[in-house]
Amino acid sequence: MFIEASVNIMMKGIENMPLLNQQFKLPDGRLLGYNEYGMPDGRPMFIFHGIPSSRNEWNMWGGEVLAQKFNLHVIAPDRPGIGLSSFQPGRRLHDWVADVTALADKLGLERFAVLGYSAGGPYAAVCALKIPERLTAVGIVSGMASHNVPGLVKGTNPYSLLFDNLARDHPELSRLVLRLIKFVDHYTPSIFISLMRSKLSTLPESDKAVLANTDAERFYVEIIQESMHSGPRGVQVDTALIVSPWDFCLQNIDIPVHLWYGEADVTVPPTMGRYLAATIPNCHAKFYPNEGHLSTFFNHKEDILTTFTS
To answer: 121-130 vs 96-106: helix axis angle to the nearest 10?
Structure first.
């Protein structure tokens, strides 16, 4: 029933990874793209990427070196229509749980942790609700919240807000904008990054400093490209789902959830983090002064990952 195609596999020793650009055939016939990092016998952890992003996002945070340092077996899947994953018509947020459990079963993982970054946050939350018995830990870093809750978008920079609203309200225009982003990102990446670091950008200085890092800049450009590997539809639909009313209730989550947010974040403002912290019953939240959307994970990844290894 299941097949796996592995492309561009790089081995660092007999047991080491990463195993990149893999595809797994789901029970309904769709393909799920994913990467693996770390050690096969390490603590398993699924990482859910932001938007526009892809399975390669883990490279930006530390990749194979970071996974091995914390003895993690990191599994980084693409969501439907993104990267190497097939599009899933009519999907809802909670449909992601079935994809995750199917991949975990294929990898022989009875229990595992989930960590959602930015747009990956809601997907970590719905796993906490639907499959608590299989989770060893749940974390959300700079996680988005639904825009239908009054007041939550306050503090969001106008460009991010426009990006989100277009995806929900004007899908065709959103896909056109995404094609333009991919074009600029591909053909003039230096201009793309320079604009984000310029005085015209609304990003805080902490985020601009991350993009001044040569490796982080390279990976940032790459993950945006890969997010639209098969076109912009997957990114547009994923964004629209997240900013629309969710199909599950945060109040019904019973297991502990850990949150980390930057106080200077203007992409996903800390008001969203405070809402999640107040709504999820057993929630442990940490807010970092002066940190932004990128810098919260980039500068505090070791503090964050300790939660999954202690």
So the answer is: 80
> Can you tell me which residue has the tokens 């793309």?
192
Q: What is the largest CA-CA distance in the chain?
A: 53
3-state helix, strand, coil in the chain (%, to 5): 45, 20, 35
CA 85 to CA 180: how far, in whole Å? 22
Q: Which two tokens stand for residue 62?
A: 């530390």
State whether residue 35 is helix, strand or coil: strand
Tokens found for residue 26: 């789901």
Q: How does DSSP classify residue 133?
A: G
Provide the token pair at 11. 């081995």
Structure tokens, 139: 């974390």
The SS3 of residue 192 is helix
In the numeric block, which tokens belong to residue 50?
Answer: 């932001």
Cα(78)–Cα(86) distance, rounded to whole angstroms? 9
The pLDDT value given to residue 110 = 98
- Residues 170-228 have pLDDT tens digits of 999 999 999 999 998 888 888 778 877 776 578 899 999 999 998 999 999 999 999 99
Q: What CATH number should be reported for the domain holding residue 81?
A: 3.40.50.1820
pLDDT for the residue 156: 95
The model's pTM is: 0.92
The whole domain housing 54 covers 4-309
Task: Give the whole-angstrom CA distance, residue 146 versus residue 73.
Answer: 30
| CB within 8 Å of 251: residues ≥ 6 apart | 279, 280, 281
Q: Is the peptide bond before 52 cis (omega within 30 degrees of 0)?
A: yes
How many domains are contained in the chain?
1
